[in-house]
Amino acid sequence: MREVVSGVSFLLALLFYGAASALFFLDVARNRTRGPAALDLAGRGPGHALDATRPSFNAAPPSRLAPLLLGVGALGHATYVTFASFVARVCPVHSVHFMLSVASLLAIAVYLVARRRFRIDALGLLIGPLGLAFLLGTFFLGKPHPEPKLHPMFIAAHVMANLLGIALFLLAGASAALYLVQENRLKHKRHVERMGGLPPLDILDRAVHRFLIAGFPLLTLGIVTGTFWAHRLEMGNTEEVMRAVFGYATWLLIALVLLLRAAAGWRGRRAAYGTIAGLVFAAAVLVIYLVRPAAGLGG
């Protein structure tokens, strides 16, 4: 009976967490610049720059269904953790993955209580996927028996999701770098006459955002599916630790850039710097993927 309740609660939590995360992402993705506020700043003449301190867009109202799904997913998560601890004979206090599950449940509870008062609906972009990742971590790391080998197609999907996500972040980083170069030229009135072939600042800013929007779900999928290999972190595998650290750092930075754009109107220079910082960590993940056969990382 415990096994049945544990399995059903896990599947329900997985379903509702996934749906809530998708809705939170769509809320952030649709909060784009609209109307006359989207000005061609390069066409306004030298010295003008995006005002990153004021939101220049009309934010769409957040979805009411996403927090509800997140709450239902958290209930399923809590039920699974409770029953799984009895089934697997694992004490939550002495288990890292169970402690992370409890921490994510507390974070979700605080978020659901505070989101309306502090207007932090967009924070669900972080909370939803984290709850999903820690749920999977509890499921796969809490097994008292060795887990079966994964299908090659699943491994290929995991790798391709990461690599495609990083490729889109490379494009976003390139657009962000070009934005900073052109903004600096406009600010100091240098080489303005040579800038006819460069895109306007507003177009570059939107390109950065769209590349991040396209790459973020792929990286999230890579992070979630990567939970299958999380047991290697506890074994001290250097390669896996490095890749996980850089992967989560990339995901967190990109999520913060998207979150701050939706919630605080961060655009222009701030978004560009955040994107480039995320690109540095994404490049580190890519380097580990490419050089590990030659370097023999992880032994």
Automatic annotation (TrEMBL):
Keyword terms: Membrane, Transmembrane, Transmembrane helix
Key word Transmembrane present: yes
Keyword Transmembrane: yes
Transmembrane intervals: 6-26, 65-88, 94-113, 120-141, 153-181, 211-229, 241-260, 272-291
A Pfam family assignment: Cytochrom_C_asm
UniProt cross-references to InterPro entries, sorted A to Z: Cyt_c_assembly, YpjD/HemX
Domain of life, source organism: Bacteria
GO molecular function, one term: heme binding
One GO biological process term: cytochrome complex assembly
Domain Cytochrome c assembly protein: 87-282
Protein's recorded name: Cytochrome c assembly protein domain-containing protein
Lineage: Bacteria, Pseudomonadati, Myxococcota, Polyangia, Polyangiales
